[in-house]
Amino acid sequence: MQLPTLALVPLVAALIWLFTAYMAKSFPTLTGKKIVLLIAHPDDEAMFFAPTLLALTRRELGNHVKVLCFSSGMSNCHAQPHLQVLTIFQGMQMA
Predict the structure, then answer these.
(1) Residue 18 is part of which domain span?
(2) How many CB atoms are closer than 10 A to CB 3?
């Protein structure tokens, strides 16, 4: 890459940051809602949705958030289908 092109990288990064900061203000705020986060694996909420969960569970918003995992909890690929369905229904009963 040439030097003028590399010099534009910080400028583009700053513009993207300003745009996302501006857009974040226009997102709707959920208050007093019952929210269910559906995930496929037991660690997905920590790996992928931690910022979302932290934002939704702020005390002043008054949201009630539950995480429902569509997994039997078995570590191998040969989970029995009836165990998976049972886990899903148990999670629905909790909500």
Answers:
(1) 3-94
(2) 6
Closest CA to 52 of 40, 39, 42: 39
Pick from 48, 89, 91, 44: which is nearest to 66 by CA?
Answer: 91
Helix or strand or coil: residue 74? coil
pLDDT at 70 over 70: yes
**What number of residues does the chain have?**
95
pLDDT higher than 70, residue 33: yes
Q: Is the full-model pTM beyond 0.85? A: no
d(CA 49, CA 15) in angstroms, rounded, equals 25
Mean pLDDT of 43-67: 87
